[in-house]
Amino acid sequence: MDVSILLARLIGPLYLAVGVGLLLNQGYYREMLRSLPSGGILYYLSGAMALVFGVAVLLFHNLWVADWRVILTILGWLGVAKGILLLVFPQAAIRFTAWTARSSLLFASAILALLLGNWFCYVGYAS
Question: Domain for residue 31, yes or no?
Fold first, then answer.
């Protein structure tokens, strides 16, 4: 199986579930973000997981092509950036989390996750 299709099949359902969860339970997720401790092990573990995800995607899929597969590469690089941010600059990540809980970014994230999840499921499972 092509690595691009495999990644689309893995990431598509995840993004769909995240998008639906965020849309249906915005209040819950806002409260969850507000109640995160200001620092601590959760930010460290999230950063480590994001960095591992990003590096893993890039190890197998660092494709800069003019089609849908480039989105997977961009997600890999975003994972690396997020991981580094959380591990190296945790205070900035804490401020961003607090801002996200107060802004409309949660709704926009839900819509983006749904769109990407649908697209990845389509290209991953239609072939």
Answer: yes
- Residue 90's Cβ-side half-sphere holds a number of Cα atoms within 13 Å equal to 14
Range of the domain at 68: 3-120
User: What is the per-residue pLDDT across 63-121, written as a single tens digit (0 to 9) for each?
Assistant: 999 999 999 999 999 999 999 999 999 889 888 888 888 888 999 999 999 999 999 99
Angle between helices 3-24 and 105-125 (to 10 degrees): 140
User: Does this model's pTM top 0.70?
Assistant: yes
Task: Give the 3-state secondary structure of residue 40.
Answer: coil
The total of structural domains in the chain comes to: 1
Residue 126 lies in a domain: no
